[in-house]
């Protein structure tokens, strides 16, 4: 049942704007004094899911696309950081 549900998820182009917006939000939160780093990813996931639901609708597709957009933002930031700041 879960496999069937997940196989029907499609990436929606409407979230092409959500990904960069989440990148900017993550940067702003990182620069905010006294905002814990561990909380940034959770804020991005929540905002991503809300954005997905607004853009696509309150269904599995909307929530999954929001999570995917947040994951893309977090992963691309970490890839950039690990590449630039390698020790």
TrEMBL record:
<dbReference type="Pfam" id="PF16079">
    <property type="entry name" value="Phage_holin_5_2"/>
</dbReference>
<feature type="transmembrane region" description="Helical">
    <location>
        <begin position="38"/>
        <end position="56"/>
    </location>
</feature>
<dbReference type="InterPro" id="IPR032111">
    <property type="entry name" value="Clostridium_phage_holin"/>
</dbReference>
<keyword id="KW-0472">Membrane</keyword>
<feature type="transmembrane region" description="Helical">
    <location>
        <begin position="6"/>
        <end position="29"/>
    </location>
</feature>
<keyword id="KW-1133">Transmembrane helix</keyword>
<protein>
    <recommendedName>
        <fullName>Holin</fullName>
    </recommendedName>
</protein>
<keyword id="KW-0812">Transmembrane</keyword>
């Amino acid at each position: 049942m879960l496999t069937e549900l997940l196989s029907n998820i499609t990436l929606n182009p409407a979230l092409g704007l959500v990904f960069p917006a989440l990148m900017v939000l993550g940067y702003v939160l990182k620069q905010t004094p006294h905002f814990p780093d561990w909380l940034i990813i959770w804020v991005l996931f929540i905002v991503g899911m809300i954005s997905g639901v607004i853009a696509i609708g309150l269904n599995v597709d909307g929530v999954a696309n929001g999570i995917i957009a947040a994951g893309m933002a977090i992963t691309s930031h970490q890839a950039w950081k690990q590449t630039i700041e390698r020790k």
